[in-house]
């Protein structure tokens, strides 16, 4: 029975020793960095990513991005390179291929001894299809001159219309009444004269 347990232990030790040792991640190193863009930058269109990836024992490098909020372990690769870069262009990134939002950018350098050195920019904004929010300007104080030397405001003259003269052809209601009365008298007089004339003619 003990031989069976010994055999199981030997197999377990052999299996553990044959497993690959996980890579060691070093969070910072003077030779690995992204120098542009910088934390808090607003990106749009095609941008150049500059930095350093050249280290001793360089194997290859990888650029990736992830959302600034949410899952911290989900990264989307942008590019890989087997050439180390010293203070130069790492990659040309077309940000129009992803949706607008807030992201993180990471540079990882893998070395020959299976260690990983990474540099992370924790916050970048990509705005290709949404307006960029610009803070409203602050209120500036205005200096008011209270001395007597300031110019007095110019007063524009007010033109008031003058009364028009009376129209000599305008008829008042009194004139109309008198005219009607005199007209009636004239007609009555003519009728009376015609009657008298006709009677005298008959005689």
Explain what you see:
- The protein has 203 residues and is of the alpha+beta class.
- It has a domain at 25-126: Immunoglobulins (Immunoglobulin-like).
- It has helices at residues 2-18, 173-202, and strands spanning 24-26, 33-36, 42-43, 46-52, 58-67, 76-81, 88-94, 101-111, 115-126.
- The strands form two sheets. Strands 1, 3, 5, 6, 8 and 9 form a six-stranded mixed beta sheet that branches. The chain has a three-stranded antiparallel beta sheet with strand order 2-4-7, with no helix packed on it.
Q: What's the CATH architecture of the domain at 25-126?
A: Sandwich
Rough outline:
rod-shaped
Largest sheet: 6 strands, mixed
| Share in β-strands | 25-35%
Return the CATH class of the domain at 25-126: Mainly Beta
Count all strands and give the number: 9
Low-confidence stretches: 4-24, 138-155, 161-165
